[in-house]
Amino acid sequence: MSEKKPSLLNPLIIGAAVILAGGVLAYLYLKGAFSDATSPLASAKVVPDEALMTAMISPDPNAWSQLQQFGTPEAQAAVSKGLNDFNKQMTAESKIDYAKDIQPWLGSVMFAVLPSDTSQANQQNLLLVVGIKDKISAWNFANKLKAQVKTQESDYKGVKISETVGSSNKTFSAVLDNHLVLSPQRKSVELAIDTFKGQPSFANKENANTMLAKGIDIQNSLAQIYIPEYGNVLQKLLESNPNSPALPPESLAQLKQVKSLVMGLGVDNAGLRMKAIGKVDPSLIKVEYKPAPGKVVAQFPLETIALISGHGISRGWQAVVSESAKNTQLQQQIDQYRQQIKTSYNIDLDKEVFGWMDGEFAVGAISSNQGVLAPIGLGGALIFKTSDRATAEATLAKIDAIAQTNSVTVGERNIQGKIVKEWRLADQQVWLGYGWLDNESLFIALGGPIVDVMAINTNPLDRSPYFQAIAGSLEKPNAGYFYIDMDKTMSLVNRYLTAAQNNPMPPETYAILNSIRGIGITATQPDASTSQVEMFLALKSKTGK
Prior knowledge:
Elements: H1 11-30, H2 40-44, E1 53-57, H3 61-65, H4 73-90, H5 98-102, E2 106-113, E3 126-132, H6 135-146, E4 151-156, E5 159-165, E6 170-176, E7 179-183, H7 186-196, H8 208-214, E8 221-227, H9 230-240, H10 249-255, E9 258-267, E10 271-280, E11 304-311, H11 313-324, H12 328-345, H13 349-354, E12 360-367, E13 378-385, H14 389-404, E14 409-415, E15 418-424, E16 430-436, E17 441-446, H15 448-455, H16 465-471, E18 481-485, H17 486-500, H18 507-514, E19 516-527, E20 530-539
Antiparallel strand pairs: 1-2, 1-8, 2-3, 3-7, 4-5, 5-6, 6-7, 8-9, 9-10, 10-20, 11-12, 11-18, 12-13, 13-17, 14-15, 15-16, 16-17, 18-19, 19-20
Helix pairs in contact: 4-18, 9-10
């Protein structure tokens, strides 16, 4: 008699397999294996389309831990104090431990700014959308919280809204599948529920979908901000603030041509980096973008504390003049300036001032403790590159003549082959000087010691390790630089604070500023409808270097 073999189609076996598979799938679902709770786009789908902007904060501890490599001991202590104070506030009314109770299920954190509710005075209308990557851990946390905090529950369109009452405020919350939404205003949570059930979302806004999906490409992202309708958002924010200045209709119309703005903040091995990308109507850009050659930086000395450089002042002025044809008030102001300068000094503002400033330019603050600059510790300098040296010299000759009629002595000095004009007042100290570094580069220096430093520049700024580390990491080619050497800046700050004897700066603020090596900012224009700004905050390592 043959042994009976079990059929592979035995209903009991099939049933057991289905139950087992269902259990595994349910567990994986609850653990978040199939959920999209961490992407900005997923979170934005439960944000009402009324939202003005959203911000995604990274909960990744690895990204935030990168900041621990920076900061002087004083700055580290200031930051630690702030974190400890935050933890104390968070646990004041409950025994909640972030690392144990929240971090295991926290998938993402998005803040949304909704239009202010006029019935809620002095209260920001914020909606917090938290992605749930592990529903089991989240459920355990919710039960622990319910046992410690007073909570009331109510129903809205089949979704349970929890009202948590604290010592000084209320918080309304609801779970929408893979997301937890919270707000100090019940109406905001109700709008999120409406959105979850099919009403238009923030993700449906024009430009929002691509913006949220792409974001900003930045290393170790800490936060990203998304504003899909920048001009309209700015208008609403201005209207909601009665103290904000009224913008002319022409300016407001231009702002509305900025279609979207996305910003990102990240951290790398040298400090914090911020990038912002704006999409604009190409017709809004009145000045043709041309990258700055970047040569003017080498004409500033190592002692430079701060620098702003760019390219094509004359083109910018022409754009302003062209735009004034559409703006009566601006046209009147320009005509008034032209008339005043022509009548008082016989100088043509268009041709003799802005007309020859067609090349690269820069203005810088330079440290010096000599001569007339000893009391303040710094002077300044400007460089203009021009293709029309003859007009520039003619204009300077007119200005020299005007100065001489106002008790200023104008003389010449030869500094290693460079002829420099110098202005002296009654004290016979040089207060201003100018000359040509080459055939196209005019420098103007404020303060006698700076005249010599600019004319004899043996240690140019572009060779500085500080400048190379900061500006060298920024996007190239670009429109120019904004640069600050914070070590030299803080040296002056210390000098003024010592002289003041009464330090007006909080110790925490001073510690943070003292932990910064330098700041660099630049701008680029990848195409006719895109403008990009990059800012780099170079931080000192824990060793203070």
